[in-house]
């Protein structure tokens, strides 16, 4: 191969998409499950340049003729360039994380930083934090080693930290919804950064947003940035504007990966507009109500009769969690989805949420909607729920005239959100 990625398991990697979006070359994902296979591959040296991921970032250093001083200090190489059989090693994860901090305006000067995790990425993020002027860097572990000054997650709560960086796989797909640190218990947090990029917003980031932390960022831009800086080494040529390339590729990836989620009052058009919007975007359409009916094997009014609203809501949460962690879907929800914060978290982790707003007098009454019993009931429900829709949504899409106009408005709102 000419260009590609080695690591033990690569099924999750977006590197092929990113590199091929960036440059003309082909980029191969080459899983090497055992250390013996990794060594054989590195001994053979039949590549122009590669990226290296877990668990070989240290092992690869044994094969490098020269190692960039920063990579040597961190103790990890993720980019290797082959010059006539001599291997040169670099660490562009450092540059990627540095970009993430710069792009989000994280000010480390004189601050206390908590790094969650003691694995490979700990040292990379610690080096960036130190170089950007952090005063204290504390490491948090589920199994802390007091001799190394490591803290437990409980002790972390009283550390007085201003910045949190997660380098553990907690909350990563498919085991989403996991968060070991109680961010709400840490007053004065200024930034929470997560190197995990799938889902887009991990449970840690969702909780940080809810706690009002001003800067909250996931790992997608770091991943894209490390690839852009690696491509510069691969091709021995800087991009005219590397940061613009990072922004372009990150935006394209977000557009491809994020779900689009429609919320709004019962009968406001989520299913109808959702189907048309899915078609316009070339996405698979998922109607959460239809999924509830399918998995229950009976209709929504029948579920309400047998299990009450509570039973229906539990099934709704289950479906929001099932589909919310997937990618690239158009998800249409039932009107009551906003009643539980965990539903919104499940849908926000990988989604843009649009509120389809139809005038209350135009909302359908009845027709299998158990709570929309009369025009008056619908009016009361809409007064109660408006603030919940407003709080959950990234944008409001009016559905005041035709379905086509609503689709056009939704496409415009999405462009604005995804390009920013
Ligand atoms: N802009 C529109 N013009 C005309 N009819 C519309 C418009 N938007 C929606 N409708 C109609 O309103 C009715 C309700 O729409 P739909 O079933 O899509 O709503 P929903 O939000 O999915 O409802 P629920 O919350 O019950 O799932 C449908 O008959 C649909 O055709
Ligand atoms: O998952 C991936 O594709 C990668 C992750 C990081 O280890 C990067 O250092 C590597 O270059 C690519
Ligand atoms: Mg519907």
From TrEMBL:
Pathway: Metabolic intermediate biosynthesis; chorismate biosynthesis; chorismate from D-erythrose 4-phosphate and phosphoenolpyruvate: step 4/7; Metabolic intermediate biosynthesis; chorismate biosynthesis; chorismate from D-erythrose 4-phosphate and phosphoenolpyruvate: step 5/7. ATP binds at residues 267-272, 369. GO terms for molecular function: ATP binding; magnesium ion binding; NADP binding; shikimate 3-dehydrogenase (NADP+) activity; shikimate kinase activity. Pfam families: Shikimate_dh_N, SKI. Signal peptide: none annotated. Residues 5-80 form the Shikimate dehydrogenase substrate binding N-terminal domain. InterPro entries: Aminoacid_DH-like_N_sf, NAD(P)-bd_dom_sf, P-loop_NTPase, Shikimate/glucono_kinase, Shikimate_DH-bd_N, Shikimate_DH_fam, Shikimate_kinase/TSH1. Mg(2+) binds at residue 271. Its cofactor is Mg(2+). Its main location: cytoplasm. One of its GO terms (cellular component) is cytosol. It catalyses: shikimate + ATP = 3-phosphoshikimate + ADP + H(+). Belongs to the shikimate kinase family. Monomer. HAMAP family: Shikimate_kinase (MF_00109). This is Shikimate kinase. It comes from Faecalibacterium gallinarum. The gene is aroK.
């Amino acid at each position: 191969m000419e260009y590609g990625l080695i690591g033990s398991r690569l099924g999750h990697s977006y590197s092929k998409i990113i590199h091929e979006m960036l440059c003309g070359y082909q980029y191969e994902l080459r899983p090497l499950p055992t250390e013996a296979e990794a060594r054989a591959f590195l001994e053979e040296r039949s590549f122009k340049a590669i990226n290296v991921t877990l668990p070989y970032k240290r092992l690869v250093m044994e094969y490098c003729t020269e190692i960039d001083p920063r990579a040597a200090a961190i103790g990890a190489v993720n980019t290797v360039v082959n010059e006539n059989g001599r291997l040169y090693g670099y660490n562009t994860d450092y540059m990627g994380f540095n970009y993430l901090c710069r792009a989000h305006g994280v000010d480390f000067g004189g601050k206390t930083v908590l790094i969650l995790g003691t694995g490979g990425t700990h040292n990379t993020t610690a080096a960036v934090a130190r170089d950007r002027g952090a005063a204290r860097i504390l490491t948090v572990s589920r199994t802390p080693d007091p001799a190394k000054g490591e803290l437990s997650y409980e002790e972390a709560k009283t550390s007085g930290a201003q910045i949190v960086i997660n380098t553990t796989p907690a909350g990563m797909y498919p085991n989403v919804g996991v968060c070991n640190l109680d961010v709400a218990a840490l007053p004065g947090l200024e930034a929470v950064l997560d190197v995990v990029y799938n889902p887009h917003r991990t449970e840690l980031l969702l909780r940080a947003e809810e706690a009002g932390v001003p800067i909250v960022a996931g790992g997608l831009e770091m991943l894209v940035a490390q690839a852009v800086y690696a491509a510069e080494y691969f091709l021995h040529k800087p991009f005219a504007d590397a940061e613009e390339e990072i922004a372009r590729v990150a935006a394209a990836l977000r557009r491809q990966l994020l779900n689009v989620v429609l919320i709004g009052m019962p009968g406001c058009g989520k299913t109808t507009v959702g189907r048309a919007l899915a078609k316009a975007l070339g996405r698979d359409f998922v109607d959460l109500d239809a999924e509830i009916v399918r998995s229950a094997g009976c209709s929504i009014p029948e579920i309400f009769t047998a299990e009450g609203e509570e039973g229906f809501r539990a099934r709704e949460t289950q479906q929001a969690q099932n589909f919310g962690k997937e990618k690239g879907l158009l998800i249409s929800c039932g009107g009551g989805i906003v009643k539980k914060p965990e539903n919104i978290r499940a849908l926000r982790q990988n989604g843009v949420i649009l509120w389809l707003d139809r005038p209350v007098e135009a909302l359908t009454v009845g027709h299998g909607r158990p709570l929309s019993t009369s025009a008056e009931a619908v009016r009361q429900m809409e007064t109660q729920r408006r603030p919940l829709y407003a709080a959950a949504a990234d944008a409001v899409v009016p559905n005041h005239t035709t379905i086509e106009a609503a689709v056009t408005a939704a496409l415009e709102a999405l462009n604005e959100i995804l390009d920013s």
